[in-house]
Amino acid sequence: MKKKTLLKLISPEISRKKFIKGNKNFIYLLNKRLDWMKKYTKNKKNILEFGSSNCLTKIIISNKIICTDKNKNKFIDFELDMNNLKLPKKYKKKYDVLIFNHCLHHSKNPINVLENVSKQMIKNGSYVLINEPETSLIFKIFLKIFNHEKYDDNKKNIKKRNFWYENNSTGKLLFANKKVNDIFLKNYKIISNDLNEFLIFLNCSGNGVDTPYIPLNMFLLKLLDKIDNFLIKLFPKIFALNRKIVLKKI
After folding, report:
1. In terms of CB atoms within 10 Å, which end of the chain has fewer, N or C?
2. Contact 241, 136 (CB under 8 A)
3. Residues 186-242: pLDDT tens digits?
4. pTM confidence score
5. Around Cβ 141, how many Cβ atoms within 10 Å?
6. How far apart are CA 111 and CA 209, in angstroms?
7. Res 91: pLDDT
8. What is the 3-state secondary structure (H, E, C) of the chain?
9. Percent of the chain scored above 70 by pLDDT?
10. Is residue 172 over pLDDT 80?
């Protein structure tokens, strides 16, 4: 039975309308979360996103991005399940960049997913760009209050059934102790591994859900972002709500 949550789930259509109709809080967050990826997608021909849902990456990053999701909707290019990769031969070893934006924690096993895409989808020198929730103290409180998904930081539970699925600690478990230039899974080198987002995340109005928020103009959102950066630098384990990672296939 699906547990009850205080958050109202919204469709990709409604989420997309928030952006198109000018919800500044939402626009600011998504631009911050995705704009950095342009450095790695520039001049790249074949880019694919997993778990696209509303496919706003095409608007923010590039209209060349192939949007996929395991659930069909009018915004995605084709259905693709990261837990069960079944690719036609023409798509194998094709992609220069893969994007996992807050979707890797919805996999049954993120390590297997990253190993599989390395073997099947990308060639040496290709990038995997990841955003994942960071289960700082504040985010754990948020998840508890709203009863939204789960987290489990305890690696001793890793063999339990569904340990990884909807585990918001996925990014932390995989990358918290990794440094730039570390080798990950023998398939990837870590190019970037940073923490960000606090109040701009909590006050964004939600992506796949609707959350309460205070509408702000761009000046105040930029100011809030600077406050976030200061707090996260001082106390990352308390305030950081997002981890961004860049992997390079080697």
Report:
1. N
2. yes
3. 999 999 999 999 999 999 999 999 999 999 999 999 999 999 999 999 999 999 999
4. 0.96
5. 10
6. 27
7. 82
8. CCCCCCCEECCHHHHHHHHHCCCHHHHHHHHHHHHCCHHHHCCCCCEEEECCCCCCHHHHCCCCCEEEECCCCCCCCEECCCCCCCCCHHHCCCEEEEEEECCHHHCCCHHHHHHHHHHHCEEEEEEEEEEEECCCHHHHHHHHHHCCCECCCCHHHCCCCCCCCCECCHHHHHHCCCCCCCEECCCEEEEEEEEECCHHHHCCCCCCEECCCCCCCHHHHHHHHHHHHHHHHHCHHHHCCEEEEEEEEC
9. 98
10. yes
- In single-letter form, the type of residue at position 187 comes to N
Burial class (CB in 10 A: 0-12, 13-18, 19+), 86: exposed
Provide CB contacts within 8 A for 235, sequence distance 6+. Answer: none
Show the tokens assigned to 140: 């754990």
Rounded to an integer, what distance in angstroms lies between the CA atom of residue 55 and that of residue 249? 24
Bin 43: left if φ > 0, else alpha if -120 < ψ < 50, else beta. Answer: left
